[in-house]
């Protein structure tokens, strides 16, 4: 496929549908220099964005956490996403909503006088981990750790929080892995570079407590689905060595959906019944 800057179609930018190749910003855009941007990754199934309003609410909350006053209401964001999706002509698609500080009077750390912009791009995107969605992904263990809530707004979906994810995923892919698993600043199991993690032991599901990383919308959805099936879900701090005793593992995320994991570092897992069932249930839910 062509690069993401060289495609047909349109991108919604500040109220207008702009030809894809013309959807550009100035080189002195504040976000490019100081990471003053937040975003949402969403999927549309059969022409409808799954959990769309929840994503729009989180986008606004993330912008507020980074002291960026949103120029659009949630209803306006919803209308913009609908317009962008319809203009794409796609039924199954990935939807990226982005909010950022643009260029303006400020070009230092402070940027209060610079305007806040929003854009929405839509494109086709298959399984995030490719064949691993069926066979079980292989994960490296990242060298970096998710930071303390005292150091950065950890519950915002902010671009700057993903730099260590990029570094870690590059290293993982160089080793033949699909992704990398982070520990948090205390040494507990946290999450993958763009997905939350779940484990199974003795018919119960364990997942790290989301107290220093993003409590994913897919994560919340899957937890409720498991509870509705009568499966016990335990949200808690998990020590890395506990992975030796877990039988199954999977990742959740809007892009990842529900992806089985076969290996994390030296720890191995089976793609078992609970993993298969929740993956199938999630697929049915998003297309219902």
UniProtKB/TrEMBL annotation:
Enzyme Commission code: 2.6.1.42
GO CC, any one term: cytosol
Keywords linked to the UniProt accession: Amino-acid biosynthesis, Aminotransferase, Branched-chain amino acid biosynthesis, Pyridoxal phosphate, Transferase
Function per UniProt: Acts on leucine, isoleucine and valine.
Pfam families: Aminotran_4
PROSITE patterns, sorted: AA_TRANSFER_CLASS_4
Cofactors named for this entry: pyridoxal 5'-phosphate
GO MF assignments: L-isoleucine-2-oxoglutarate transaminase activity; L-leucine-2-oxoglutarate transaminase activity; L-valine-2-oxoglutarate transaminase activity
NCBIfam families linked: ilvE_I (TIGR01122), PRK06606.1 (NF005146), PRK07544.1 (NF005726)
SUPFAM superfamilies associated with the record: D-aminoacid aminotransferase-like PLP-dependent enzymes (SSF56752)
InterPro entries in the cross-refs: Aminotrans_IV, Aminotrans_IV_CS, Aminotransferase-like, B_amino_transI, BCAT-like_C, BCAT-like_N, Class-IV_PLP-Dep_Aminotrnsfr
GO biological process terms held by the UniProt record: isoleucine biosynthetic process; L-leucine biosynthetic process; L-valine biosynthetic process
Family designation: Belongs to the class-IV pyridoxal-phosphate-dependent aminotransferase family.
Signal sequence, start to end: none
Chain's gene name: ilvE
Protein's UniProt name: Branched-chain-amino-acid aminotransferase
Metabolic or biological pathway, per its Swiss-Prot or TrEMBL entry: Amino-acid biosynthesis; L-leucine biosynthesis; L-leucine from 3-methyl-2-oxobutanoate: step 4/4; Amino-acid biosynthesis; L-isoleucine biosynthesis; L-isoleucine from 2-oxobutanoate: step 4/4; Amino-acid biosynthesis; L-valine biosynthesis; L-valine from pyruvate: step 4/4
Swiss-Prot/TrEMBL catalytic activity: L-leucine + 2-oxoglutarate = 4-methyl-2-oxopentanoate + L-glutamate; L-isoleucine + 2-oxoglutarate = (S)-3-methyl-2-oxopentanoate + L-glutamate; L-valine + 2-oxoglutarate = 3-methyl-2-oxobutanoate + L-glutamate
Enzyme class: transferase
């Amino acid at each position: 496929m062509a690069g993401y800057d060289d495609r047909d179609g349109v991108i919604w930018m500040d109220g207008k549908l702009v030809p894809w190749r013309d959807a550009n910003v100035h080189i002195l855009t504040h976000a490019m220099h100081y990471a003053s941007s937040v975003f949402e990754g969403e999927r549309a199934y059969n022409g409808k964005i799954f959990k769309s309003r929840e994503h729009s609410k989180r986008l606004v909350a993330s912008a507020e956490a980074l002291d960026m006053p949103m120029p659009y209401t949630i209803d306006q964001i919803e209308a913009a996403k609908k317009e962008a999706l319809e203009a794409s002509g796609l039924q199954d698609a990935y939807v990226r909503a982005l909010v950022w500080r643009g260029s303006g009077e400020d070009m230092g750390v402070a940027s209060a006088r610079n305007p806040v912009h929003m854009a929405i791009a839509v494109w086709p995107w298959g399984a995030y981990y490719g064949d691993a969605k069926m066979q079980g992904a292989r994960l490296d263990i990242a060298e970096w750790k998710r930071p303390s809530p005292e150091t950065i707004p950890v519950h915002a979906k902010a671009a700057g929080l993903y730099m260590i994810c990029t570094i870690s995923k590059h290293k993982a892919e160089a080793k033949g892995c699909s992704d990398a698993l982070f520990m948090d600043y205390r040494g507990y199991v946290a999450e993958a570079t763009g997905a939350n993690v779940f484990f199974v032991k003795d018919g119960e599901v364990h997942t790290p407590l989301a107290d220093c990383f993003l409590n994913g919308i897919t994560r919340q959805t899957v937890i409720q689905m498991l509870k509705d099936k009568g499966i016990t879900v335990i949200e808690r701090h998990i020590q890395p060595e506990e992975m030796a005793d877990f039988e199954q593992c999977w990742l959740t995320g809007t892009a990842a959906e529900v992806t089985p994991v076969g290996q994390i570092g030296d720890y191995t897992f089976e793609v078992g019944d609970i993993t298969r069932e929740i993956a199938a249930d999630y697929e049915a839910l998003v297309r219902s």
